[in-house]
Design brief:
- The chain has 7 helices and 2 strands.
- By secondary structure, it is an all-alpha fold.
- The protein has one domain.
- The protein has a two-stranded antiparallel sheet.
- The chain is elongated, with a radius of gyration of 18 Å.
- The structure holds zinc ion.
- Zinc ion binds next to loops.
Amino acid sequence: MKETRPSVGPTWRSVFYTALIYGGAALLFTLLGVLQGPTVAQIGTTRPADTIPGHLIELAVFGLLLAAVCIVGFGREGLPFVLLLPVLTLLLDIDHLPAYLGSAETIRPAHSLLFLAFVLAATAITIKALDTELVVASAFMTHMAIDTGLFAPWSPLSFQYIQLDPYRPIFAVGAVACAAAAGLVLRVRKMADNHGRGANNG
Ligand SMILES: [Zn+2]
């Protein structure tokens, strides 16, 4: 009896849970920032309201572009990722919620390498699919490649803010590499699956 999921590709269900984990983790890091961040670090704001729609569109477009990179590797089975990548890319900004509500918060509490490590561990334990983890990493890095300004790479352990700009090219390369690797992982799994079927049939 095979324990793996019946489809070789991501399921809509796994994609839904991945988004739930990612959004939940971002809110958790936001809460930790509010609780743990020293008062001097509670200077997070939102960008000017008139620039928000443009920024969100930019994030979604880049998420979709990378999803296209995945689909080249995946074929039709990768369709759930075409939704997941832009959704996760956008979802990271949920950590601006306290500022939207007029409350003090740290700058970008979930735009943190520890956040990435946390969601990767959480998806590894629950979803158990390397391609999904690579898509999660790709979405996070896509967002970081587009953002500008300050972030705290070790939030919520440290709220030392540094400039994101010098690291944006690294995040951009990482985002494309992870999307391509996700496509490759699915392709290899598909080939192994076909091979298995062939062996079973003859
Ligand atoms: Zn952001």
